[in-house]
Write a structure and sequence with these properties.
single chain; about 350 residues; 15 helices; 5 strands; about 60% helix
């Protein structure tokens, strides 16, 4: 164990060094001035500090204040050595953060006992810190494992959602890619963007539970089927919304709130503005853009600029204005995604 020993009096310093090194397993790091000790920090490593209280330029308390500016010394135990016996001095020392103090003239047996006690405290703190580090690493590993399992579940759900309708499956994957690009332009973190990309293909997961006659029906969805689909998506939300940081919960939020509108006139709960989960607001833009630019049995694909202008025109009404700004910023990336995937939309050559 290393012990910082600081005393401006050479005789006292030599004595404290001798006492320190007489303690089992201790190595003294002697300094004759506070300035010299501070100059060696923060590269100086020690387990305990023994500091004289009365010193020129910096007294012991002032030195301790400077030492504590370095994070690595925050939990280092400190023993003050002082010739003052008044209560006010002792209170000042303890208030400064000292662990213990010894009154001069220093008795070697008392010094060794107090030093060993403080060293034991330092060792206990070190072991506790190591255990806490180990525990945090174990927690982090567990979180990563749970995240990986959750991502696998969402991936499998995405695959299952595309079994009945390959056209819908392609749409879902494109929406995921568009939503990720918008999320990045919005300024979300890499992890948040990855979560949105993973969750977005399930934005209409309730539809996967619909009968084949409804899923594969050509033409527009009837009002009755639309309402039933909304109820299924709401059920998906109720099932999956367990954790605010869960990818599964994000799936639930997106599925339940995709048809809400920024102005509060959407369905099913007429949520308004920021009350709509951000993931749902982002995916809503991506979903509508893909539907507009895709040829469907009951409509032709819109040219890209016409579709983009429609998104802009719905800013502050149907869509979050900030999400629309992010969409505009992400348009070059969205066009690249469409071109890369040989997306069969109208006007892509001109828009690129």
């Amino acid at each position: 164990m290393k012990v910082l020993v600081l005393d401006d009096n050479k005789t006292s310093l030599d004595l404290l060094v001798k006492f320190t090194e007489s303690a089992i397993g201790c190595t003294a790091l002697p300094f004759a001035s506070p300035a010299a000790a501070l100059a060696a920090m923060p590269h100086l490593d020690f387990d305990v500090a023994v500091i004289d209280f009365q010193m020129p330029v910096y007294n012991g308390v002032e030195f301790l204040d400077e030492m504590m500016r370095f994070d690595k010394y925050t939990n280092v135990p400190v023993i003050f050595v002082t010739g003052d016996t008044d209560v006010a001095t002792r209170i000042t020392i303890l208030d400064a953060g000292a662990t213990d103090f010894i009154t001069k003239p220093v008795d070697i047996q008392e010094f060794k006992v107090r030093l060993q006690n403080v060293l034991a405290l330092s060792e206990a703190r070190r072991e506790l810190a190591e255990k806490l580090d180990w525990l945090q690493e174990a927690i982090d590993r567990g979180v990563l494992e749970l995240k990986a399992r959750e991502r696998e579940i969402v991936h499998r759900l995405t695959i299952s959602a595309g079994f009945k309708d390959t056209t819908a499956a392609s749409h879902n994957l494109r929406v995921a890619a568009f939503a990720e690009a918008i999320a990045r332009a919005y300024g979300l973190s890499d992890e948040e963007c990855d979560d949105i990309r993973l969750a977005a293909p399930l934005h209409d997961f309730g539809g996967a539970a619909s009968p084949d006659t409804s899923m594969l029906k050509q033409g527009r969805m009837t009002e009755s089927a639309y309402r039933k689909n909304l109820r299924k998506n709401a059920t998906v939300h109720d099932i999956l919304a367990g954790s605010s940081k869960s990818v599964l919960a994000l799936v639930g939020d997106i599925a339940a709130c995709l048809n809400e509108r920024w102005d509060g006139q959407g369905t099913p709960n007429r949520l308004k503005g920021d009350a709509i989960p951000l993931g749902a607001r982002i995916v809503a833009v991506a979903d509508v853009f893909d539907k507009l630019t895709t040829e469907r049995p009951f409509k032709e694909a819109w040219p890209l600029e016409r579709a983009a202008q429609h998104i802009r025109s719905r800013s502050g009404i149907q869509f979050d204005p900030d999400c629309v700004k992010a969409f505009e910023k992400a348009i070059p990336d969205i066009y690249k995604i469409m071109d890369r995937d040989q997306f069969p939309s109208a006007g892509i050559a001109e828009a690129s």
